[in-house]
Design brief:
13-stranded parallel beta sheet; 13 strands; 8% helix; 17% strand; mainly beta
Length: 319
């Protein structure tokens, strides 16, 4: 379906285009040119033809610089399995009004990330399985509309991306399944608008910084299966808005600070399979909002007698 071989008529009503196992940029470019009102574009390149001459930096570059910027109505753009972003910069997209930008299994992202802070309309930025991000600098401080940030399944990154800056808008941060991650990202504690923080299955993560307590608007904290974590976050008593807490399968977690019982808005507490945990802080009856409590398979834990004073608790797991 090359543009030179087949006449492609204008498709002005087309608003959504999903391409799977793309092997050739020519037909894709031809269709996109004729679809000026696209709002949603998802391109997944074929891994079988990843070295195809039709998927080189030159062809990808022309698509990003000459065709994509013309889609002024585009709001969602996702690209998967692309190894040819090395010669492209986000600068080419700055005049667009993209709300969601997603990269999955993409490589050679260094140059592309230059200028990402110019995408001022961006609300959701997602990197999934992008191993090239390890140790890279990502400047997001100027993304004033950003509400959701994801760096999930970057399995081999021992250090988080640098340059979180000081954005005050993000409400959700996902870094799940970064299994080699050893350090908590510097700057996360500056994201003072965060309401959800997900670090589940970061199995090598050992500590959380002291200034974690700055996240006073945090409602959901998910650190399930952080199997190397030994200490509960310092400053947890400052998380006064906390409603859901998941530390399930944190097998080396030994203690919970006494200040934990100040989380009077907590509704869900999951700490199953915390096999090294022996004591729960005195004052658990202060957790008057609890609706679900799960300490299943915490073999060393002795449940405090006052636990059963939580008359309003709807679901208490077996100990």
């Amino acid at each position: 379906m090359y543009e030179g071989d087949v006449e492609i008529k204008p498709m002005e009503k087309l608003s959504m285009l999903q391409v799977r196992f793309c092997e050739d940029m020519n037909p894709l470019s031809a269709i996109v040119k004729k679809s000026p009102n696209l709002k949603w574009l998802d391109i997944h390149f074929s891994s079988k033809h990843i070295d195809s001459t039709m998927l080189t930096n030159q062809f990808i570059g022309k698509f990003f610089t000459n065709i994509l910027p013309n889609l002024q109505n585009l709001r969602y753009f996702a690209i998967s399995n692309c190894n040819f972003l090395g010669s492209i910069s986000c600068e080419h997209l700055k005049m667009m009004s993209i709300r969601e930008l997603s990269f999955s299994k993409c490589k050679q992202l260094d140059k592309f990330l230059v200028g990402i802070d110019k995408l001022v309309t961006l609300e959701d930025l997602n990197f999934l399985n992008c191993e090239d991000l390890k140790g890279r600098s990502i400047q997001i401080a100027n993304l004033s509309a950003l509400e959701k940030l994801q760096f999930s399944k970057c399995h081999y990154a021992k250090t988080p991306p640098k340059g979180f800056g000081n954005p005050k808008k993000p409400k959700i941060l996902h870094m799940c399944e970064c299994e080699a991650l050893e350090e908590f990202p510097i700057g996360v504690s500056n994201l003072i608008a965060l309401e959800e923080l997900h670090f589940a299955r970061c199995r090598a993560l050992e500590t959380i910084p002291k200034n974690f307590g700055n996240l006073t608007k945090l409602k959901i904290l998910n650190m399930g299966e952080c199997e190397a974590l030994e200490e509960f976050p310092v400053g947890v008593s400052n998380l006064v808005a906390q409603e859901e807490l998941n530390f399930g399968t944190s097998r080396t977690l030994r203690t919970i600070p006494e200040s934990f019982v100040n989380l009077t808005k907590l509704k869900i507490l999951r700490m199953f399979e915390c096999e090294s945990l022996e004591e729960f802080p005195i004052g658990v009856s202060n957790l008057v909002a609890l609706e679900e409590l799960n300490f299943g398979t915490c073999r060393a834990l002795k449940a405090p007698g006052e636990l059963w004073q939580l008359d309003e608790t709807k679901d208490v797991a077996h100990f």
